[in-house]
Amino acid sequence: MDTVSVKGLKVDATIGIFDWEQEIFQPLYIDLEMRWDNAKAAESGDIHDALDYAAVSSFVVELIESRPWGLIEEVAEQIAAGLFSQFQVPGARVTVNKPTAVPAANSVGVSIVRGEF
Ligand SMILES: Nc1nc2c(c(=O)[nH]1)N=C([C@H](O)[C@@H](O)CO)CN2
């Protein structure tokens, strides 16, 4: 099957396991690879046959901004759950990067694969 991707989606989040992290915003960068059959949209030219990456991006931003978070693993899991329930994606790889978490590292993050991938 084909894929639709979103790379480097920046969202400022309240996130972290320490009390001080719950008082600030830190940037998260989200990468998504989502399984989708793109042939139908290519044939029809209809956005309703496509997996709308703009709608997916808006969903991810709204989800992350909706509440404070602890582990970035929780963010990744909830994004994957929404891709299944709201967008009928059959499988996805979700990566959440938190570049300011470890000053000596360019970035740290987690990646999960859920469903048929
Ligand atoms: N696997 C993870 N490790 C750590 C996380 C996390 O979300 N997942 N979070 C932290 C802290 O919040 C850190 O970002 C602040 O220094 C530590 N390890």
Provide a concise account of the structure shown.
The protein has helices at 39-44, 53-65, 72-87; strands at 2-13, 26-36, 91-97, 109-115. It has 117 residues and is α+β, with helices and mostly antiparallel strands.
Overview features:
single chain; 117 residues; alpha+beta; GTP Cyclohydrolase I, domain 2; four-stranded antiparallel β-sheet; 3 helices; 30% helix; binds the ligand Nc1nc2c(c(=O)[nH]1)N=C([C@H](O)[C@@H](O)CO)CN2
> Stretches where pLDDT falls below 50 for ≥5 residues?
none
Q: Strands across the major sheet, in which order?
A: 1-2-3-4
Q: Please report the total strand number as a whole number.
A: 4
CATH class: Alpha Beta
Task: Classify the beta-strand content into a percent band.
Answer: 25-35%
C-alpha termini separation? 9 Å
CATH architecture: 2-Layer Sandwich
Largest sheet: 4 strands, antiparallel
The amount of helix comes to 25-40%
Structural class: alpha+beta
Order of helices and strands: EEHHHEE
The CATH topology turns out to be GTP Cyclohydrolase I, domain 2
From the alpha-carbon coordinates, what is the Rg to the nearest angstrom?
15 Å
Q: Give the tally of structural domains.
A: 1
Helix tally equals: 3
CATH superfamily: GTP cyclohydrolase I, C-terminal domain/NADPH-dependent 7-cyano-7-deazaguanine reductase, N-terminal domain
Identify the bound ligands. Answer: the ligand Nc1nc2c(c(=O)[nH]1)N=C([C@H](O)[C@@H](O)CO)CN2
Mean pLDDT: 98
> Based on CA inertia axes, which overall geometry fits?
elongated
